[in-house]
UniProtKB/TrEMBL annotation:
<feature type="domain" description="NADPH-dependent FMN reductase-like">
    <location>
        <begin position="28"/>
        <end position="167"/>
    </location>
</feature>
<dbReference type="InterPro" id="IPR005025">
    <property type="entry name" value="FMN_Rdtase-like_dom"/>
</dbReference>
<dbReference type="InterPro" id="IPR050712">
    <property type="entry name" value="NAD(P)H-dep_reductase"/>
</dbReference>
<dbReference type="GO" id="GO:0010181">
    <property type="term" value="F:FMN binding"/>
</dbReference>
<feature type="region of interest" description="Disordered">
    <location>
        <begin position="1"/>
        <end position="21"/>
    </location>
</feature>
<dbReference type="GO" id="GO:0003955">
    <property type="term" value="F:NAD(P)H dehydrogenase (quinone) activity"/>
</dbReference>
<dbReference type="GO" id="GO:0005829">
    <property type="term" value="C:cytosol"/>
</dbReference>
<dbReference type="Pfam" id="PF03358">
    <property type="entry name" value="FMN_red"/>
</dbReference>
<protein>
    <recommendedName>
        <fullName>NAD(P)H dehydrogenase (quinone)</fullName>
        <ecNumber>1.6.5.2</ecNumber>
    </recommendedName>
</protein>
<dbReference type="InterPro" id="IPR029039">
    <property type="entry name" value="Flavoprotein-like_sf"/>
</dbReference>
């Protein structure tokens, strides 16, 4: 065998194992947002369950809980020369860095809760940091299970160029 070919064959197994370990390291980053600010929120419970399930059984995916409580109410007067208040910038950066979004949404009066809509609106300001990301919704609400809030999140998200997974999950 030519020296160059033999050298390549000797190197191949190492290259193959490198590519497997690279795949194992590659992480899909999920930003999880809860529409309820309640301390004992069932929706934040859904996110924490998802985080645990992911740790146990989905290597290559990491879910981070993104707290929306510190965000001020949307007000374009807070925008200065295309920049946002530091807490808003930090939130937008976390959305930007995520590959996909998990919304956990209560239903408030047949729709999305105000804190969640506020967070969605901040991240929609230019440049829209939701654009072209995959998204999923889970919900815990009253008798409806949150179906109507899920439907409204989809309507808002389609306008913002999010790509939603079909087959909604909800529980009541
Ligand atoms: C202001 C308000 C409005 C609500 N409206 C609805 C509603 O329209 N439909 C529904 O199924 N539940 C409704 N609920 C109940 C909540 O969705 C339910 O308590 C849910 O568990 C709250 O989520 P959390 O446990 O994550 O805080 C409402 C609750 C509040 C506080």
């Amino acid at each position: 065998m030519e020296v160059s070919k033999r050298k390549r064959r000797e190197e191949e197994p190492e290259m193959a194992s490198n590519s497997v370990s690279n795949q194992a390291q590659a992480q899909i980053k999920v930003a999880a947002i809860c529409g309820s600010l309640r301390r004992a929120s069932r929706n934040s419970g859904l996110i924490h369950c998802a985080i645990e399930i992911c740790k146990e059984s989905i290597p290559g995916m990491k879910i981070d809980f993104i707290d929306i409580e510190p965000l001020p109410f949307v007000n374009v007067d807070l925008e200065k020369n295309g920049t946002y208040p530091p807490v808003v910038e930090a939130f937008r950066q976390k959305i930007l860095e995520a590959d996909c979004i998990l919304f956990a949404s209560p239903e408030y009066n047949y729709s999305v809760s105000a804190p969640l809509k506020n967070a969605i609106d901040w991240a929609s300001r230019p440049p829209n940091v939701w654009a072209d990301k995959a998204a999923a919704i889970v919900s815990a609400a009253g008798g409806s299970g949150g179906q109507r809030s899920q439907y409204h999140i989809r309507q808002i998200g389609v306008f913002l160029d999010l790509h939603f997974i079909n087959k909604p999950v909800h529980c009541s």
